[in-house]
Specification:
- This protein is of the alpha+beta class.
- The chain folds into three domains: about 110 residues, D-Maltodextrin-Binding Protein, domain 2; about 100 residues, Dipeptide-binding Protein, domain 1 (Alpha-Beta Complex), CATH 3.90.76.10; about 210 residues, Dipeptide-binding Protein, domain 3 (Roll).
- It is about 30% helix and about 20% strand.
- The chain is built from 16 helices and 21 strands.
- The radius of gyration is 23 Å and the shape is globular.
């Protein structure tokens, strides 16, 4: 029996044990039985299952979790917004122009845009939104981009933004500045935007309800109401889906897809994130680059994809996923070919010839990450690393792992709020407050800063790609994949579109 086959066999045995009985749980009482498929269709409503609650604050400039952005994409809009092809199209603005020197952006505010509280959207609201986002946003890349604004002014329905230096990615950051009413103070609990759906209510850990915005300036949504039902237990989520209590669930595992028996359609896209074993570089063994490299050699990424998703998914190799196009470097996916002996050699060189104990903390509501961690644990055993999985609820993961950096390793995925390289790479700058792995590399910091300051698009692209190479060469993390995204949807619904960002556009859905 070859070493590779033996490692795969062991992983398969463990994974099978973890997944056995996965679908025998009963649904929790969170409103899943509040009507049948036919009654929802008759009312032109749908129920959507999600695996986590939204952030405590629904303020658009305070959103942390990708799952929150996924839902609130339907409520908030910027002057422009992304479409399903990755282009930025006009939203609250009816058009815009960029000066030849790349310094001046002129936006024309669309007529008759009305906020969800009934107030008309004005140029003053736009200026307020930009200034507030620049001051309060917790997304460092957005704050950095907005700090380059030298002046913002309005003349009637024309808004002019002047930058102190050209930024070819600036329009993508404009999409992240959600336009909100200047005199509204309840965004945290009763968010108000301009999107095709408006917020109705929230019951923590249970549901979020949106309804169609009948005053929407553009093509109005077909659905009258969308209720997001929260299931932090994947078994309960699947049971509700398979019973027909839900009309749509995204981010399913291949095992859930294979066990689905209710006749729903299954669509396949990608999750648009970078899944990795993220390593706390302040944890003693991981302070040594050779140890981190050893872990990269110890992981058979192809086997991970085979065992967790029957080969679905795309290997990444660094902190960028394929939807980024010109920035994605496919060659980095094979930078660390599976090599147990090389891994052992590096561990011995760094003083860990007998391996070490390791705890991998995983959010319990994300089955794909749990399944991946189970395979990784078995693969690490082959090089002497005794890894165990610690499952924690989502809020604990956010607080302890992401916020307090109190972890050794974690399996999770990072996405981007906008389609530019800075949104993915800024967090690994040494002094970035979102650098949860405590990565510190002088060359990386200097290269990223150079990419931010250049006005030459080709040079900027080359510098960002060098940042990816540095992350790979120094084994900042054990990079795995952009996960396949399986979406189960009621066969009576149509119009679902995959986006290159972690969002679901409910305005495109309708009953046949």
């Amino acid at each position: 029996m070859t070493k590779r086959f033996f490692a795969v066999f062991l992983a398969a045995v463990l994974l099978a044990s973890l997944l056995s009985g996965c679908f025998g749980a009963t649904d929790k009482d969170n409103g899943a039985s509040d009507g049948t498929d036919s009654s929802r269709a008759a009312a032109n409503e749908i129920a959507v299952g999600i695996a986590q609650d939204l952030d405590n604050s629904l303020d658009p400039y305070q959103m942390t979790a990708a799952g929150t952005r996924e839902v609130m994409f339907n409520v908030f809009e910027g002057l422009v917004k992304p479409d399903s092809d990755g282009n930025y199209v006009c939203a609250v603005a009816s058009d815009y122009k960029v000066s030849e020197d790349g310094l001046t952006y002129t936006f024309t505010l669309r007529d008759n845009v009305v906020f969800h509280n009934g107030e008309g959207c004005t140029a003053d609201d736009v200026i307020y939104s930009f200034e507030t986002c620049a001051e309060t946003s917790i997304t460092s890349s957005v704050v950095s981009a907005l700090s380059a604004i030298e002046d913002i002014s309005a003349d009637g329905n024309t808004i002019t933004i002047v930058l102190n230096a050209p930024n070819p990615d600036f329009i993508s950051y404009v999409s992240s500045v959600y336009i909100v009413p200047a005199d509204y103070t309840e965004q945290e609990t009763k968010p108000v935007g301009t999107g095709p759906f408006k917020f109705v209510s929230r019951s923590v850990q249970e549901n979020i309800v949106l309804e169609r915005n009948d005053d929407y300036y553009g093509e109005k949504a077909s659905l009258s109401k969308v209720t997001y039902k929260i299931y932090e237990d994947s078994n309960a989520l699947f049971t509700a889906l398979n019973s027909g209590a839900l009309d749509l669930v995204a981010h399913l595992t291949i095992d859930q897809v294979n066990n689905l028996s209710n006749g729903y359609n299954v669509l396949e896209g990608t999750m648009n994130l970078v899944q990795a074993v993220y390593l706390n570089n302040d944890f003693e063994p991981f302070k040594d680059e050779r140890v981190r490299q050893a872990l990269c050699y110890a992981v058979d990424v192809d086997a991970v994809l085979d065992l967790t998703a029957e080969g679905h998914g795309t290997k990444v190799g660094s902190s960028m996923y394929p939807a980024f196009g010109k920035y994605f470097d496919e060659s980095l996916a094979d930078a660390y070919p599976y090599d147990v002996e090389k891994a052992k050699e590096l561990l011995a060189e760094s003083g860990y010839e007998n391996g070490f104990d390791l705890t991998i903390t995983v959010p319990s509501n994300y089955q794909p990450h749990i399944d991946t961690a189970a395979v990784i644990v078995e693969q690490f055993k082959a090089v002497g690393i005794n890894a165990t999985i610690k499952q924690v609820d989502w809020n604990t993961w956010l607080t302890d792992v992401y916020g307090n950096r109190d972890f050794e390793a974690t399996v999770c995925g990072f996405d981007a709020s906008v389609l530019n390289a800075s949104a993915m790479l800024a967090r690994w700058v040494s002094d970035n407050d979102k650098n949860m792995i405590n990565y510190s590399n002088e060359e990386y910091d200097e290269t990223f800063a150079a990419a931010q300051s250049t006005t030459d698009e080709a040079e900027q692209t080359a510098l960002y790609k060098r940042c990816l190479e540095i992350l790979s060469e120094t084994a900042a993390n054990v990079y795995l994949q952009d996960l396949a995204d399986f979406v189960a949807i009621n066969p009576n619904l149509e119009g679902f579109e995959f986006y290159p960002l972690y969002v679901i556009d409910m305005s495109k859905l309708s009953y046949k």
